[in-house]
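Quarterly update from the structural biology core.
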Amino acid sequence: MTTAVTNPWPAGNAGHAAVAARARQVVKAYGSGETRVVALDRVDVDIARGRFTAIMGPSGSGKSTLMHCLAGLDTVSSGQIFINDTEITGLKDKKLTRLRRDRIGFIFQAFNLLPTLNALENITLPMDIAGRRPDRAWLDRVVETVGLAGRLKHRPSQLSGGQQQRVAVARALAARPEIIFGDEPTGNLDSRAGAEVLGFLRRSVDELGQTIVMVTHDPVAASYADRVLYLADGRIVDEMYSPTADLVLERMLRLAPGGTGTSAADAAGRTPADFDARGRVS
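Predicted structure, tokenized:
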């Protein structure tokens, strides 16, 4: 049995005002009868607003399924998903599509840029489709944050992989979504480019107040987060605050078959008193 690290962050406003997304008793199952497979097994989780959360776990643990359900990209078999105070489980397709467009950002392993558009046009494309004018001051700040000021007129073929993913990050940020979900966003990048993109994601949280949830298998990527959630067999079995790559790797090894099951708190050797108000080591 594991013992999770106690949340070191202050509770903020009353109720769940500081929560950007939450799942309550979420079950996701595929098939029926003897072929039924449970991908998520009564998951309860709160995603803190203005924080960077990483989701990790062994292959088949349910980490991508959890992200897809939280983001409204997949339906749940039972339970509830909320974005802020809006329950998205049970929303009709049209309302769910509008919610994803207006309130959620996405960054995927594939850059998904249109080759005929330049970087700026790719960044503003979702707003253009929605008939919304970009906030120029905010757009300039986003472009500066991700370091694209000198590349806005370049088409994807004229950009490196890391630069293309920066465009994808800026596209997600530009519409000022309530929450951004990233599915292995550095999976197609080398270590240097990946570190640059992760640095920009970190800055978007620290400087722009963005909320980010990222699925990753990479302990180094997870070390950029404020909090790491660990899934196994469709359940959240542990969490870690102020992670380091070494501690994340150690915890992942313990979750693997044959691991000792030592908790993240034991592995870290820390208590909540060791953290400041931002969830970092004091």
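Strands lie at 19-30, 37-48, 52-56, 78-83, 86-87, 104-108, 179-183, 212-215, 227-232, 235-241.
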